[in-house]
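queue> pop job 88
queue> type: inverse folding (structure -> sequence)
queue> payload:
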């Protein structure tokens, strides 16, 4: 297993673009899909809120994992390296 090294190469601009593009495309497609669901408005709202909470909690977990990794020198954010 590779040890955490602060000198590891940063992400390329192509990778960052691809990550953001895929995020925007997936959220847009999901939103359009919810809008065109053949159900009542309250069902669309329920599905939309569930999707919003899922995306928000994903950001929270990713941020927390990154903070734990930097603060504790943890591998994969959860277990100590030898």
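queue> result:
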């Amino acid at each position: 297993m590779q040890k955490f090294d602060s000198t590891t190469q940063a992400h390329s601009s192509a990778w960052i673009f691809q990550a953001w593009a895929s995020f925007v495309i997936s959220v847009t497609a999901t939103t359009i899909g919810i809008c065109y669901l053949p159900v009542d408005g309250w069902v669309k709202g329920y599905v939309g809120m569930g999707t919003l909470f899922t995306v928000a909690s994903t950001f929270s977990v990713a941020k927390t994992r990154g903070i734990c990794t930097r603060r504790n020198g943890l591998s994969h954010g959860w277990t100590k390296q030898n």
